[in-house]
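Hi P.,

Sorry for the delay on this. The queue was packed all week, but I finally got your sequence through. Input first:
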Amino acid sequence: MRTIRGFCAVSICLLPACPDKESESASGSEATTTGTPTTGETMTPTEGTTTETTTTTSEGTTTEALTTTTEPTTGATTGEPLCDVDMAGFEASCEQVCEVYGSCEADVDPVACAETCKTETLFKDTPACLCSATAWNACRGALDCAGIDAVGPVASSPCFAETASYLIHCADCQVEPEFFGADMCGTIVECPDVLGVSFLCQNGTCVCNDGEADYASCPDPGVCAGMDAEALNAAASECCGIPF
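Then the structure:
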């Protein structure tokens, strides 16, 4: 696998081949994180409505006001990061990380690097992609040259959570939960040729693997028996520190 530094020196792109922005299909879990992945919910309140009904009786006509109230509904978007970042903040993060790359590699022009970052990093026009791309830039922008060299899509690398979150929210990734029995299930998030993180629960313990080694574990919260894919992915996100 190529190094992150090698990709970013050219285009700030972690992917071996950057997705086509126009033909890209949204897949995988659409969102969780700024910095360390977080999960938010979007609340869509529906106002109460008042209607009038007219009743005619032998004694006359009576108009009654009936109020029907619909409770606010919660649309949970798994992994959707809630952040205050706008395009100006994202562009500033591009300049920040490119200053670091420019100081570490003589052949990197920070200005050209920043322009490439601004135009090629956001493969998806979503809040999740904007937030996670900004967090990814900010994390790398705070590293020294040795840290930049070590950045990668494995848990032992600097900015692993931010790197994974960026890929999951901005690239074409797939999340595939599977249930094998009441006490065994798992889910995997895959970004082709770049990232593959799995979460497997069995014998009372759940383990996270970054494609090379196990890097985190937690007690089985009992999600296998319920065969609820959303609950399984939520448990994986909490245990593994990246959005499923």
